[in-house]
Every structure is written in structure tokens, then in C-alpha cells.
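Recap slide: E3 ubiquitin-protein ligase, sequence and predicted structure.
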Amino acid sequence: MLPVANNPEEQANEEELRDQAADIPQARNHNLRNHARRHREMFERARANRRLQADRGAQAARERGGPAAGRAQLGRARAREALARANNARQALQPDAAVLEALDEINGIDFDDEEVPNRRDVRQDPQVLEFANLFPRLIALDPHDAQLANQNLARMARHLAPENYIRVARREQRQSFMCGICKSSVHNVAFLNHLDTCAASKGACKIMKDMEYHHFLSSTYSLRQQLYKLRERLELEYFEARVNPERLEHMECAGCITCAEHLLGACMPNMQRDVYQIHANKIEKTVMAHFEQFLELTKEDGLGEIISKHTAHFDSIQDCIEDGPTDFDELQETQNRRHGTWYEFRKDTVEEQQLEKNKYLEETIEKHLVKYRSHRTEVTKLIGLFMDKMLACIEELKNSPRLARIIQLRRVHCIDPIRGQVPLEGEAEEIEDDEEDINAVVQAEEFLQLGII
């Protein structure tokens, strides 16, 4: 409580302070009431909007035949898509009269969208049953069913098979890499062999050859190939240990402390994550070391060009400096010209050349630092992406009852180059068109039999 003042002016000030203190709780309570009212109004509006949306959804569901009509509509849509594919096959393959008759029967089915059966009765829908009975008969009558099946299997193998990355790795081996010496495109799998012969035939200097060598080994292709092979090896070791526990002693481990723990499978829940990270870190350091060496050689090559230009300039004035007088009367004039040329070279040209070299080194180092950081970020992201895909593949297949057959397929479809040799220039596309499609069909048939796809 405020003390009572004797001065009338002080009493007036104290009364004003008391009034202000009394108004503060009232103002605060007023603000709280307004805040609560606004929130209550917002809540009521939101609840009204939700009720309105629910009523509209219920009305739309009733108009479409009820909430249980979704599955039936999906079945009809799939049936119409299959019918469209069958009609396209009819036009493309020119089937016989029996196939045409079956297609006419299927086309005669009237898919009515207005009368939708209950979800529980969708399998008993007469239209769906009629189509289900007619379509297998159509496929059985089609003389080109094997061709269509192989095309579908090849498509499924390319998009759905877990071993798709093996096919991608083999395809990348046939892609081209630009040779900086002869300016020609060479298949990735044959580039290192080409580099030796190309450097010898073109008479390239050691810096140019080493620069191309480190450029190739630091490329995304080299990194991906190493990660492909690492993933393939770790997955095979893990799958073999799942099928046969005796193979645990051959599976690489980075988490178990003792051999007994490893033989008991203590590292199996890790799914080769730690082992992958150890080897991937080594691969990353190797790739970045090659890239750093490539940048250093590039800098030396550019600096060598500048030094060569400066040397050519000095050679152009060397004759003027070293020329002797042919006549005694020209002695003074020759000496003056020689001294003037040398003085100008020492005073201006040398300084300009040094500034040019310093500027080049400064700009090049800054650019190379940006490139190095960008390349390291790309390498790190790619390593993490490969690890996630490896763990997803192991998680998907580790409990498969047909894991032994999957291992056999992995052994057959490995990442080694096709036929164990480098494809020639003329037959690279032929190999890609023939062997890849054939292997895709064979592999897809195996996966289809195993129930993987």
C-alpha cells in the first residue's frame, strides 16, 4: 500500500498512480477475453467448414454409389486398360479368327459406371467375371503370346528387379569418355588401355598423360563402378551367410569384438552398414586424391604455357642483346641499343610477367578450391545414396525363402564386362541390343518364377 503524503500535489499524484494500477488488471482481463473470443470464433468457423466438407463428401459418395464403390471402379478401370491393350495387340499382331471372336466377345461387355456393386460383391460382379473368363482364353489363343510375354518380362526386369543396378553398371561400362589427347570418345571400360597407346602415338608429354589418367580415375564413372562392386560383394556375403551360417567366417565384419561373437551372427542386424562405410571412406579418399592431383596438374599445365610464352619473348630479344658490332663506328650505337633493351626487359617485362603468373595462380587456386569442394560434396552424396539402396535391398531380400536361387542369379549376372573382354568399337551397340535384351528376359523369367516380381 502506498504511504499517505502530506503535500496536496503529492496526494494527487498518488491517487493518479492508484487509478492507473487499478486499470492494469482490468485492461489485461479485457485483452484476455478478446483473445479467447477470437479463438472461439475461429474454432467455430473451422468446425462449420469441416461439417460442410463432410456433408459434401457424403453427398458425393451417395451419388457415386456409396463409399464401398472405389474398389469396383478400380477393377473396371483396370479391365478397360487391359481391353485397350488387347485391342492394340489385335491391330498390331493380326491374330486369327478365334482371337478376333474372343475380342469381339470382350468388346461386347458393357462396363456401366452408374450401377456400381458393393465392395464386398465386386468379385461377383458379372461384368468383371465375364472379362476375367474371356481374357485368359484370348491370351491362350494368341499365337504371339510368347513374344508379348517376353516383352513384358524384359520391361519388368528393367524396372522392378532388385538387380537392376548390375545392369546399369554394365551399361555404364559401354558409355564413352572423352580423351583429352586425341579428342576422341572411348568406351569407359577401355579408356586406360587406350590412354597408353594414344599418349605414345601422339607423343604427349608426361603431364598431359598423367592429367588424363587422374581425371578418369576421379570421374563419376570410376566412383560408381567401385561402389557397384562394393555393394555387390557385401550383399553376396550377407546373403550367403543368411543361407548358410557356416559362411559367416567368410563375411567381412567391422562390429564384432571377438571371433565367437561374429560366428554367432552378432553383426547380422547391422546389414553390412559399418563395413560399407569403412570401404566407402577409402574409396572417397582415393577418388579425391586423384581429383586433387588432376587439379594440380591442370594448374601446372597452364603455368607452363605462360612460362613458354615468356621464354619465347626472351628468345625474340636475345639476338638483339647478344649481337656484336660489325663496324667500329657502330660500337656506341650497338651498345646503347643492347643496354636499352636489357634495361627495359629487366624493369618492365620481368615485372609484368611475374604479375601475370601470380594472377593466374591466385585465380586458378580459387577456382580449383570451389571445384574440389563441389566434387567432394557430390562424392559424399553418392556414397550415402548407394548405402541406402544397399540396405533397402538387403532388408527386402534377407528373409526370402528363395534366397539361394537369388545368390545364383547374382553370380551369373555380375558386374564384370560382357564376355570378360572389352567390346570392339563396331560391336558395342550390337552387344547392348542383343545380349542385354536376352539376359533381361531370362533374368525376368527367373525372378517371376521366384516370386520376386
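The first strand starts at residue 176 and ends at 178.
The chain has 14 helices and two strands.
(End of recap.)
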